Amino acid sequence: GIQVEQSPPDLILQEGANSTLRCNFSDSVNNLQWFHQNPWGQLINLFYIPSGTKQNGRLSATTVATERYSLLYISSSQTTDSGVYFCAADFTGGGNKLTFGTGTQLKVEL
Amino acid sequence: DTAVSQTPKYLVTQMGNDKSIKCEQNLGHDTMYWYKQDSKKFLKIMFSYNNKELIINETVPNRFSPKSPDKAHLNLHINSLELGDSAVYFCASRRTGARTSLHFGNGTRLTVT
């Protein structure tokens, strides 16, 4: 069935470190988004990235649609980056809905 | 501010009660959604409306009834609340078509005691 898998499930970083989060999806997609759920529970849009590469400050994302994965890069991590990172995919023929991965729980320590 | 807003932010109620959560968006979007986030943080779609018409209805107990009075509003009514309904409920919206970004409200934390 349609699946979105994220790795790693948990990650602890020292402030200033870099990291890469991965999202694998099981079929072709029309839409791929990355979200950050902050410690207050808000879901923040990071990237809309069905293909290609985008950058926003210390964050960047790359989706290789033909190989069915997306990567989120966090550089020079800060404590405010802590939270859960979700990728979500809108599968071709999937009925116009985003299917979420199980998330990566990130904790950035001083 | 342009946003997806939901009320209330917190809702604590007893088993058996009926409650509603309201959602409004002023982004000009015509598709709205309800998602449920369980205690393990997993987000699962419940319903979707497009221009007041129900287009997605996942396997959700019929105690849950969405209502869309217009394309800017999507409310969720829950009858006969059960302990297992405790979760965070998120409203979201986007323009019609899969190739558009989904925007979420801040969530409603429902606790059933």
Q: Helix content range of the residues of chain B, please?
A: under 10%
Structural class of chain A: mainly beta
The overall strand count of chain B is: 11
Number of helices of chain A: 0
Q: Element order, helices and strands of chain A?
A: EEEEEEEEEEE
Low-confidence stretches of chain A: none
Task: Report the major sheet of chain A.
Answer: 6 strands, mixed
Structure, described:
The complex is a heterodimer of chains A (about 110) and B (about 110). Chain A is about 0% helix and about 60% strand. Chain A contains no helices and 11 strands. Chain A has strands at about 5, 10-15, 20-25, 30-35, 45-50, 50-55, 60-65, 70-75, 85-90, 100, 105-110. Chain A starts with a strand and ends with a strand. Chain B has about 110 residues and is an all-beta fold. Helices cover about 0% and strands about 55% of the residues of chain B. Chain B has no helices and 11 strands. In chain B, strands 2, 4, 5, 6, 9, 10 and 11 form a 7-stranded mixed sheet that branches. The interface of A and B includes residues 95 and 96 of A.
Primary descriptors:
heterodimer, A: 110 residues, mainly beta, 11 strands, B: 113 residues, seven-stranded mixed beta sheet, globular
The gist of it:
The complex is a heterodimer of chains A (110) and B (113). With 110 residues, chain A is mainly β.
Helix and strand layout, with pairings?
The complex is a heterodimer of chains A (about 110) and B (about 110).
Chain A: E1 4-7, E2 10-14, E3 19-25, E4 29-37, E5 43-48, E6 52-56, E7 59-64, E8 69-74, E9 83-91, E10 99-100, E11 104-109
Parallel strand pairs in A: 2-11
Antiparallel strand pairs in A: 1-3, 3-8, 4-5, 4-9, 6-7, 7-8, 9-10, 9-11
Chain B: E1 4-7, E2 10-13, E3 19-25, E4 31-37, E5 43-50, E6 53-57, E7 64-70, E8 73-78, E9 87-94, E10 103-104, E11 108-112
Parallel strand pairs in B: 2-11
Antiparallel strand pairs in B: 1-3, 3-8, 4-5, 4-9, 5-6, 7-8, 9-10, 9-11
